Amino acid sequence: MGQDQTKQQIEKGLHLYQSNQTEKALRVWMRVLEKSADPAGRFRVLGCLITAHAEMGRYKDMLKFAVVQTDTARELEDPDFLTESYLNLARSNEKLCEFQKTISYCKTCLNMQGTTVSVQLNGQVSLSMGNAFLGLSIFQKALECFEKALRYAHNNDDKMLECRVCCSLGNFYTQIKDYEKALFFPCKAAELVNDYGKGWSLKYRAMSQYHMAVAYRKLGRLADAMDCCEESMKIALQHGDRPLQALCLLCFADIHRSRRDVQTAFPRYDSSMSIMTEIGNRLGLIQVLLGVTKCWMIQKELDKALESIEKAQELAEGLGNKLGLLKLHCLCERIYRTKEQHRELRDHVVKFHECVEEMELYCGMCGESIGEKNNQLQALPCSHFFHLKCLQTDGTRGCPNCRRLSVKPGYV
């Protein structure tokens, strides 16, 4: 298969894919991969296969194609191709919750400066790195990366990237419980879809609606949460987007739990868990198990709640997800307080505070914890964040966290 024929077949596959004929598109692209003698064409078709498998939640296949693409880039001896292939390696590992590997591949991309494609891809690299830091609960670095990605999006007028960053920022603020910002950013993403998204994939609309649903549920606006989640799920089902289906099922279950309708919540958690397991989203599995634990606690089935916690703890420790561990210690504290098992209670109180210290989840001005309840937060240029009310009271005297970090231990 020559260069022109390769190009035609890639376009044919893209047309089929955009027409929602995914399996036919995959067959066309796989044929190109087997028969094409053009390395640049092979590189492009591998990029199509990586994107398609990402959207279907076939993350192990995504990684397999990303490895082959990197080998092809080395064969081509083109730094632009190599940068792009390392980004795909980073994204594949991000989806498989291998966050340290993601960060390592992102750093490799950023070190390959000077390539023409690196200027276009740096925003996507920063976004992927931010998602990985968020998965590890390293909040300051996550926020730095998201803000960098947002600057790239604005400087290059890249509305699709801006939309994706806004969804990640919604997730970021959901985790540290500033629910006003958790809603603001996906709403901004939805605005971008309405204003610019005529030719975009519907996944951008679905993604923004899902993150809005999560924020609405946290704010107690359950009817709005249900509406947004239903719209997101509808698109996810139309397009065979398994990862988003799993997230929507989790959100539906959480909404029913918020309504104390545990019997309706449990089957949704089970369905979500099944897809999360199938695609390898271990971070999602932790969220499912947290929801299941809370349902057992509502039913006062404390031993069953502890079983779910044990499974979630194993996953959180394996991923290095500190926020997940903090939430689990918090739930254990409540359970052991009810069971009046004081030794176990003390252990989890100590571990809870160790997690808070490790993640710096406290306001450097008032000393109170961040992420315990809904609170308006504000980040300084250094990406340390504080209670908004504390910053307004304190004025602009610089960042107390940075001042503390700059003091050498020998002089304390």
UniProtKB/TrEMBL annotation:
Instruction: Report each TPR repeat as a residue range.
Output: 123-156
Lineage summary: Eukaryota, Metazoa, Chordata, Craniata, Vertebrata
**Function noted in UniProt:** Postsynaptic protein required for clustering of nicotinic acetylcholine receptors (nAChRs) at the neuromuscular junction. It may link the receptor to the underlying postsynaptic cytoskeleton, possibly by direct association with actin or spectrin.
Alphabetized PANTHER family for the sequence:
43 KDA RECEPTOR-ASSOCIATED PROTEIN OF THE SYNAPSE
Keyword terms of this UniProt record:
Cell membrane, Cytoplasm, Cytoskeleton, Lipoprotein, Membrane, Metal-binding, Myristate, Phosphoprotein, Postsynaptic cell membrane, Repeat, Synapse, TPR repeat, Zinc, Zinc-finger
Query: What protein name does the entry list?
Result: 43 kDa receptor-associated protein of the synapse
- SUPFAM superfamilies registered for this protein in UniProt: RING/U-box, TPR-like
In terms of Pfam families, this protein maps to:
Rapsyn_N (PF10579), TPR_8 (PF13181), zf-RING_2 (PF13639)
Residues covered by the RING-type domain:
363-403
